[in-house]
Amino acid sequence: MRNPPLLTLLIYNEIPALESAAISLSLPGMCILQINLSETGDQNFEMLHFFPESAQRFATSYDLDALINHIADSQNSIAKNPGSSSLFLGNMEAVSHEKQAVFALAKVLTESESGQVVCVYFKDTDIFSETEKSCLQSFIELASGSVRLRAAAEMLKSEKAKYSHLFSAAPEAIAMLDENNRVIDVNPEFEKLFQYKRDEIAGLFLDELIAPTSKFDEAKKLSRENWEGRKVFLESIRKRRDGKLLNVSILGVPFDHGDGHLRVFGIYRDITEKVKASKIMQNRLAFIENLGRLSSELINTDIKNIDTLIEQALQMVAQSHFAERAYLAIVNEDESAIEISHEWVDDPRYSYIHNQPRIQVSEVNEYLDSLKSGVTYNLSRHEAGKVKGTSGLEFFFDLLNIESLVNIPLFIDHTFWGYIGFDTYSRAIKWDKQSVDSLRLTGQILINAQARKKTEEVLKDALEQVKSSDNLKSAFLAGISHEIRTPMNHILGFVDLLSEPDISASEKADFVKIMKSSGMNLLHLIDDVIELAMIDSGQTRIREEQCDLNRFMQSLLVEANATKSTLQRNEVQLIVNGDPVSNPPVILTDEHKIRQIINNLLSNALKYTIKGSVEIAYSILDNNRLEFSIKDTGIGIRPEDQDIIFDRFHRLDNGFSRNYGGAGLGLCISQGLARLFGSEISISSTPGTGSTFRFNVPFKPYLAPLSPALPNSIGSIIYNWSGKNILMVEDDPVNMRFLAVLLLKTNAHLLYAGNGEEAVEMVQKNPVDIVLMDMNLPVMSGYDATRHIKLMRPDLPVIAQTAHALSGDRKECLQAGCDEYLAKPIDKNLLYSMIDLFLKKGKS
After folding, report:
1. CA pair distance 734, 736, nearest whole angstrom
2. What gap in Å lies between CA 447 and CA 731, rounded to an integer?
3. Which domains does the chain have, with CATH numbers?
4. Distance CA 748, CA 726 (A)
5. Nearest one of 702, 692, 696 to 673, comparing CA atoms
6. Going by C-beta distance under 8 Å and a sequence separation of 6 or more, which residues neighbour residue 660?
7. Cβ-based neighbours of 250, under 8 Å, separated by 6 or more
8. Disulfide: which of 67, 394, 437, 603 matches 119 by Cβ 3.0-4.6 Å?
9. Angle formed by the axes of helices 505-537 and 433-498, to 10°?
10. pLDDT higher at 672 or 535
11. How much is the pLDDT for 334?
12. 251-265, 268-282, 686-700, 790-804, range with the lowest pLDDT
């Protein structure tokens, strides 16, 4: 395309008539007159000197469509540009007269629509009359107007091309609408955004195509404002061809098309990502605000509300992070399983608590080890089993319908408590780092609240137990005071009566019997209290020793008969049943503690059985455990009382307890001892029918020969140990006198030592046959004295006698080197039989 259209006349000599066209030609000769048409329509005339060498070269050089050369009347010529496609040249080639040439040129130029540029040469202007000059003036004006119109057309064409380019290349989606809101045109970006082709929607109503039903009234309102000439802008929702909703900004711009009709440009920009980012930011701000409120509530609320708050928190956090299920998984007390303590789920059908509330640690051991080391897992279904530490996890993805999950470990004071989990079951998603950090913070707040609840519950229970214990202890102390004062009153009262001068010998014997019985009751009470204290402090231990089951059961029968006689249960039959086929003759177990348990249970059974039977039985279990049972036909125990009879400060208020006294410690001690064996005393009872108590203990078979047992009762055997030297080591004069009275009857030679150092010296200087060693001595303890004596005379028997009567005291004495052990107060018959046994060993 040629540069801005112009009409060029090349004129020789002056043309005065052109002055009215604002052209002044004062230079004779050849010149170029250019009429330049600007966008504003103003004419700009410029005179350029020109000296042609040839018309052809001139036309070509200056890109003229044609050149008319008039030199003389007979020398008219037309030269045309070889590159021109001018239409008018054919009409001018037959023109020979200069006037004809000029007017032919005028006719062509005014009728042409192509905007050609022509040069005309004149040798002489006198050939034009005034009328012709006037015509020439009109020609120039007409030519100028024609060129102006052509220039305007060119400009319009250029602007249209420019608009078309901008419309097509615009980064926004644009639709041009007519006054009826029908589509005139859309650009490629509109086609891409809304998935409609231009040809498909031309002439259709735009709002019906892209406005969703919920936004149709809004779209109609915007259209009305546009057609009223107002520009509108808003952010809203529109739909694609496939129905997907888009967040868009909408700019409606009305404009006059120039034909008297209004048009509207609808300009749309996809702001889905912007809206999404804004929504995420709003969610995060709301999440932070809610988390702060939640944290405050969890700290300040009563612990009874914590479970509800945790579940509300799980729901809030899950929904704000696009999860369909959220849960708190806690390691149970023995660390054998993971248990879901709290949960929120979008669809109850996918609840963990209802379908899989517990997972064994052994099933996901590798995974839990990774969590314990601090690893956070953010997995999709196809990653399960492939990521390190997730071996076997794909089974649970299938079992629990998991598509995506994030599990975050939770710690308190560097101790692994469990993890918080969020997952989906209908779609796969991936949580970003910021989301995972938010979930981690949530989990830590919730686990701290859970720990707070647990701690406060423990403290609350402990406080209630302390209060209850204080009340029970007060009642116990009142009861124990009664139990102590009663036998003490018996002893002291009858001691006073013994000093009365008119008391007969038979009465004195009865008084002594009563005092002895009361003393034994008082001793048993003290033993029970001390034994209970030892169990509570953890100082009671199981001690294995030889035990002949048959002999053990017979001895229990002897003791039960003694208790039966004391309680005057003449109508009660005692039965012993064993397992003679399967039981080993000798086992290793703690016979003393088993005896304590059974004697307490037997005493209890006889106390509450007026007539019928009390049965003692045992059986061997498969796992090297021995089960004992004590069955009675007594009054039985109500179900509501069966849970409290083993409590240390409870006694059933049934009349029997008041009749037979006692502090109510026997069953409590028995249960404590049973637990040392890894067992529990179980009870089955029906009121009015009877009760059965059961417990079991571990044992080891023992095949070595059993050492001779010491009898518990000797009767009236008379011992004669003449020639034997017995060393008595005792710092208490009363105890020393008691031993001397007992042993002088045996004709033995007695030696005395008041402390451990004297005892060692006496052994060095005298042929001692046996030593009775008190263990709590001044200067040198009985334990150290025994060690020194055993270094000098390893075969010399040493019998420990001590007021320390607890379970571990016997073991400590034997470890020091003692051969046997007697607890104070000394049973004279047991003392006689034990001394006799060792003296006979030494003699043989």
Report:
1. 5
2. 62
3. 6-156 (no CATH), 170-270 (3.30.450.20), 303-460 (3.30.450.40), 541-701 (3.30.565.10), 725-843 (3.40.50.2300)
4. 7
5. 696
6. 567, 607
7. 222, 232, 233, 234, 235, 236, 238, 266, 267, 268
8. 67
9. 170
10. 672
11. 84
12. 251-265
Here the tokens at position 122 are 């004149």
- Token pair, residue 655, equals 């009349």
Q: What is the pLDDT of residue 715?
A: 46
Is residue 55 within 8 A of residue 79, CB to CB? The reply is yes
CA 761 to chain centre: 72
Report how far Cα 337 is from the mean position of its chain's Cα atoms. 14
Better-scored residue on pLDDT, 451 or 793: 793
How is residue 593 written in tokens? 């503690």
Q: Does pLDDT of 841 surpass 90?
A: no
pLDDT higher for 143 or 2? 143
Decide if 631 contacts 690 (C-beta within 8 A): yes
Angle between helical axes of 733-744 and 828-843 (0-180°, round to 10): 60
> What is the reported pLDDT for 186?
92
**Which of these, 798, 805, 803, 806, lies nearest to 834 by C-alpha position?**
798
| Rounded distance between C-alpha atoms, residue 453 and residue 449, angstroms | 6
Instruction: Please return the burial class of 141, using the count of CB atoms within 10 Å of its CB with bins 0-12, 13-18 and 19+.
Output: middle
Q: Quick: pLDDT tens for 679-715.
A: 999 999 999 899 999 999 999 887 554 444 444 444 4
Residue 121 · residue 69 · CB < 8 Å = yes
> Tokens 């406005």 identify what position?
211
Handedness of CA 592, 593, 597, 600 (dihedral sign): positive
Higher pLDDT, 484 or 760: 760
Query: How many Cα atoms sit within 13 Å of 232 on the Cβ side?
Result: 22
Is 6:32 a contact under the CB 8 Å cutoff? Answer: no
Q: Which two tokens stand for residue 443?
A: 């989990």
Contact 829, 714 (CB under 8 A): yes
What's the pLDDT score for residue 101? 52
pLDDT of residue 73: 39
Rounded Cα–Cα distance for residues 156 and 691 (Å)? 116
Q: By three-state DSSP, how is residue 447 classified? A: helix
Q: How many Å apart are CA 442 and CA 451, to the nearest integer?
A: 14
598 in Cβ contact with 556 (< 8 Å) = yes
Would you place residue 641 in the very low, low, confident or very high pLDDT band (cuts 50, 70, 90)? confident
Which has the minimum average pLDDT: 293-297, 392-396, 570-574, 831-835?
293-297
